[in-house]
Amino acid sequence: MAIRHLPENSAFSTADLSSKGFKVHEISGAVDTLHNHARRDYYKVVLVTGDMILTYGDQTIGINGTILFFANPHVPHTVVHRSKEKKGYGCLFTEAFIAGRERAEILQNSPLFRIGANPVIPVNSEQAAFLSSLYREMLAVHRSDYDYKNQLLRSCIELIIHEALKIQPSQNGLKQKNAATRITHLFMELLERQFPVESTGDPLRLRTAQDFASALSVHVNYLNRSVKELTGKPTSVHIAERIAAEAKALLQHSNWSIADIAYGLGFEYPTYFNNYFKRVTGATPKSFRKRKV
Known about the structure:
CATH architecture of the largest domain: Sandwich
Order of helices and strands: EHEEEEEEHHEHHHHHHHHH
Largest sheet: 8 strands, antiparallel
CATH superfamily of the largest domain: Regulatory protein AraC
Radius of gyration: 20 Å
CATH class of the largest domain: Mainly Beta
Helix content: 40-55%
CATH topology of the largest domain: Jelly Rolls
Structural class: alpha+beta
Distance between the termini: 24 Å
């Protein structure tokens, strides 16, 4: 079967998104070019049916059927369609559009948008029908002159997220059943909350297991034991992998110098960062950036 690539929908305008903070569109028709997203400033929720390969951060996911896809703006992704046709709906919105503390917390705390989580949720025909009705409602409202349409659009987004959580309540495997699980969950949240790194003037503060233990008011041995028991990996490995992932993203998708990336990630000297990156990834920052795809 020939592989085809998913393009930007011809009706979609990022300028419209930038001015209004929201866009919804129908997905249909043949595909023949690459759909490749680097870092952007919007979240994306897509309901789509097709045969495709999704690359999301460092994950590669094969899909054949109907799925909901939740894209975090800080994770670059690429979709390659292997079927001739695609159908569904796409919704894009900025964090500013969501507005309000409670709705913002849905984005920040939801496992659906969490970096490192599986962003794909398979849906059955009944679930797809309900979700499609929400997208059709958003399409109709977005085109209308209804005075409170933004509030209604936000409610539809919230309903889609809640429906997805009902279908697949947890994707990170960290059930809060005991103290060890709870502290591991808090560690993972605290680790993720530091990212993305957006300024060299606000570098990473927590970079060691002891840093996190102090922030969580627990003994470092207890934190290490809990994290290893629940995830199978030491605390230091989680930290190293996440810093390395952010370094890769900055090297690939920003124009920061390697020195700026080093300072943004909390390294005192670029040489320290070079040695760290090579130890964790097996490549130097310079060579990694050169092979950027």
